Amino acid sequence: MFKNKTVAFMGAGNMAEAMISGTVQSGKLSGEQIIVSNRSDQQKREQIERLYGVRTMASEQLPFDEIDVLILAMKPKDIDTVLDSIKYKVNNKTVIMSVLAGITTSHMEQNLPAGQSVIRVMPNTSSMLKESATAISAGRFTTESEMEEARELLRTIGQVFIIQEEQMDIFTGVAGSGPAYFYYLMEHIEKTATESGLSPEVAREIGAQTIYGAAKMMLERNESPTELRENVTSPNGTTAAGLRALDENGGGKAISAAVKGAQKRSAEISSSLKQKQLVSQ
Asked: Residue 175 carries which DSSP code?
């Protein structure tokens, strides 16, 4: 599927590097098929070139005519400047994939040549370990084969879910912000266990392994979270006491509020960008 394809990255941050690492290590692409660019950080480009054997260059030097997939991975605030700089250069057969939070496919389509294929991508930070939950949604002009190719490419960094673009905000609330919820939970587990006599290092490893094992069990068994919870909860046992304390202290409501809060903020960012676009027209 990727033979003789050229994939270029505009941006060389952590997310871009995770994707580069995944595609090269998986064998989907060779280093020679990947171009990495950014505007000014030559040192970062040289580091990535040395690690992965890819081609690197300044953004203005990109050979747009030979690029099959262009991945936008710079900071979201720079999107309009970047789109303005490439709209007269990009090949109309190039598929553009954006990993920029809050940037809709319609926003990009309005600032690119008519009919340009655009795919919105939302990985999370676990992509650095090839364990991302990544969502993708298609723009108006993207074909099924282009979506399948994008999914195959992104499988090198974890699991991929095709969703409707209007679902991106809730995906952000669950998966985009989800790792931070886990780290927040672990902060409190580690703190409490340390106060009770465990060393921070041991408490951290015990907590992380426990949650990792529970997540793996849920992925591998055809059982709902409710069923799994009930299976490990004995009446009047220690687990029941812990769950009762969670309920009494608003645990479930707090988790729901966190997901909804992140979802709302994601929608606000998209709306703000849309308003700026309307004002500039």
From this structure: I
